[in-house]
Model the fold of this input.
Amino acid sequence: MRSRSPTLSRKKALGKILRAAKAVGVEEIPLSRAGGRVLRKALKTDRPLPPFHRSVMDGYAVRAADLASGPRELSVVAEIPAGTVWDGTVRPGCCVAIMTGAPVPRGADAVVPVEDATGLGSGRVRLHPENIRKGAFVHPRGSDGRTGKTACAPGFVLGPEETAAAASIGATRLKVTRRVRAAILTTGREIVPPGRSPEPWEIRDANGPALRTFLNSLPWVKGRFLGIAPDRPEALRRRIRRGLAETDLLVVTGGVSVGRYDFVPAVLTSLGVRRIFHRIRMRPGKPLWFGRRPRGPLVFGVPGNPVSAFVAAQEFLLPALGRLAGLADPGPRALFLPLAADWEKSHPFEEARITRLASLSGRTVLRPVPYRGSGDFLAAVGSDGLALFPADRKHFGAGEIVEFHPWPAV
Ligand code: AMP
Ligand code: MG
Done:
């Protein structure tokens, strides 16, 4: 049964993963430490935005009607720097010098920028805007949002924009997802830490460091590296048991295929992790194993080839972690872009192909990276993401639009 070609598509596999993943708990933290975390409670405005009719320019607050028939001299009766308020009313024939960010006073209904003004001394100014209409250069009170508007919905990562929204409504403590705990275990008798000098038949661990960098690029995740385990059931059992404790998601790389030393699936099930699927109709990454321990962590067994590990991280670990973190859109982000040149695929699987973005006659195009197999991971250096070629076709023409998943920014 194992030797038959797997039929589970990437999309169906992803559906199973997202259904198995539930958002983890919430904590309340100060705004100053909330950057990069996932918001879990909507932020609502506590007053209109902007809170007053705000001048958008340095210039003169005027009555637009005064300038209806062209340039004119007016008396300057006051000055309003930002952070102050002038309690008077602008009368016909008068104006008020005003700065960007200051409240437009009563009576005035437009601002003439300082560039369209010529000072005449002794409290007089000549205003000569090209044309003037009511409301020019005035940002009206409440026009961006009334009190109680949702400034940021739950499920967003608090980047600079969302932090600005939180700060401007005075949200100094925020309900965010506690950091999602992820653990990585690398396996393989041939795998040695990068700092050790390898025997000719040994391989330096690329996956442990690669997955740590991947996890570190997600500020809402707390990663833990459990080291390298040999291909022996008892040793694997000990390490995996440790990995299952105090973890929301465990990734084991290597040993999930059908080789004689691929013990990971059997060890996982012997520790009470229920298999949800094993093997998918995609390359690289075909031997992917996914399961969950009841009331425990999600567990991924990822094939050991580093390219398979990158693909699994992008296509499956990222959305699983995103769902655990309560992200509204757990990703990966999909763009649809044209191929730079014809492209052939040799197998009836979906292909997730390491790809670079290039510029061709002013358009962004996809250049799949040539490599000789999923073991050729140096070919991935400097790449931008994965292009996804559907299972049911083999030939793709230049200019054809293909789905592309950019790597998350590191
Ligand atoms: P496996 O999935 O264990 O059958 O491994 C597939 C291939 O990937 C083998 O050639 C391994 O030597 C290689 N490999 C496995 N784990 C790693 C790793 N952590 N770093 C680099 N190569 C690996
Ligand atoms: Mg192995």
